[in-house]
Amino acid sequence: VFNFSAGPATLPEAVLQQAAAEMLDWNGSGQSVMEMSHRGKEYMAIHAQAEADLRELMGIPANYKVLFLQGGATLQFSMIPMNLMRGKSGADYVNTGEWAKKAIKEAKPFGQVNVVASAEDANFSYAPAQSGWKLDPNAAYVHYTANETIGGVEFHWVPETGDVPLVCDMSSNILSKSVDVSKYGLIYAGAQKNIGPAGLTIVIVRDDLIGQAQPKPITMLDYKTHADNDSMYNTPPTYSIYIAGLVFQLLKKQGGLVAIEKKNIEKANLLYDFLDNSQFFKNPVKREDRSRMNIPFTLKDESFDEAFLKGAKERNMIQLKGHRSVGGMRASIYNAMPVEGVQALVAYMKEFEAKNG
Ligand code: PLP
């Protein structure tokens, strides 16, 4: 089955097989990873290796902490302003769609939120060019959403914010391409799309931004707590971290993020090339800003939707229904989606168009 879910999403088969083989007995320890004490040497080794592999994959500089947290990217919408506003007058946000809007809403209780650019004028179908952003040089940070999972809009460039820290929601495109972490103050992502199972949230944050919060957040919502305790202040989501670690090792074996990016470009082009030549299917996003991870598309009219989904299911392609807020279809093709899955989808779409177009 090819699973096009936006998240929780398909995982690499090799990872699931290894996890299944190790389910009852990890590395001769006689325990499942799920049963291990997080303070024991077995789990500590898994945890440390996962962090080391992520650091290597993304080239994370030594002056950044990697935090393995819970609460989803959604909790970060609040933790970021809580920790980073630091008594400053406010923060700048770029409004690119559903996820950016949620981040903006949650920041408001903590200070002045300036929406410095918005794509709402064209139904969030593009990434606003930086030349139009009205940045405040005294802002605590600039926040943007690298990939809008619902709208299918992705930044293929990194904003320049000078001395103001750049904060990025990378939930749906982290590890899909190489990034220069040093350009960011903070990167965050829920794991359940490109990394692993739900329950783990990754935060990569520059040292100087930790422990500066005014007023001091409650213990569990203070980055300093987790940074000082290697993400072990309380019980971490151990099994999710273990699976994420297996994914990191696989990505390293596959040649790292440069090789992964190449494959992702190839997969996305297959689908977009078809969409651009179709009289029946359409993608609404501006060409330069199209997501390589989440590709929304509509059919000639809505009356075809049900038959399309039914036929897809019969051909072992599932979870293609678009997000409830936008309708239509969405194909999420994260790292773990093989090129064969995209080929099968395009072949089916061609067939559907020939029959119904
Ligand atoms: N940000 C983006 C871009 C997302 O796609 C999602 C989830 O789909 C979230 C934030 C929210 O993540 P979570 O469900 O982990 O809180």
Annotate the secondary structure layout.
Layout: E1 2-3, H1 13-21, H2 41-58, E2 64-69, H3 72-84, E3 90-95, H4 98-107, E4 112-118, E5 142-145, E6 147-148, E7 153-154, E8 166-169, E9 186-190, E10 201-206, H5 223-228, H6 238-253, H7 256-276, E11 294-297, H8 305-314, E12 317-318, E13 329-332, H9 339-356
Parallel strand pairs: 1-12, 3-4, 3-5, 5-8, 8-9
Antiparallel strand pairs: 2-10, 6-7, 9-10, 11-13
Helix pairs in contact: 1-6, 2-6, 3-4, 7-9
Bound molecules: pyridoxal-5'-phosphate.
Pyridoxal-5'-phosphate (PLP) is lined by residues 7, 72-74, 99, 145, 149, 169, 171-172, 190.
Keywords: Amino-acid biosynthesis, Aminotransferase, Cytoplasm, Pyridoxal phosphate, Pyridoxine biosynthesis, Serine biosynthesis, Transferase
Family: Belongs to the class-V pyridoxal-phosphate-dependent aminotransferase family. SerC subfamily.
Modified residues (N6-(pyridoxal phosphate)lysine): 193
Description of the structure:
The chain is an alpha/beta fold. It has two domains: 13-253, Type I PLP-dependent aspartate aminotransferase-like (Major domain) (Aspartate Aminotransferase, domain 2, 3-Layer(aba) Sandwich), CATH 3.40.640; 255-356, Aspartate Aminotransferase, domain 1, CATH 3.90.1150.10. It contains nine helices and 13 strands. The protein has helices at 13-21, 41-58, 72-84, 98-107, 223-228, 238-253, 256-276, 305-314, 339-356, and strands spanning 2-3, 64-69, 90-95, 112-118, 142-145, 147-148, 153-154, 166-169, 186-190, 201-206, 294-297, 317-318, 329-332. A seven-stranded mixed beta sheet has the order 2-10-9-8-5-3-4. The chain has a two-stranded parallel ribbon with strand order 1-12. Strands 6-7 form a two-stranded antiparallel sheet. α1 crosses α6. The longest helix has 21 residues, at 256-276. The chain is globular, with a radius of gyration of 21 Å. Bound molecules: pyridoxal-5'-phosphate (PLP). Pyridoxal-5'-phosphate is lined by residues 7, 72-74, 99, 145, 149, 169, 171-172, 190.
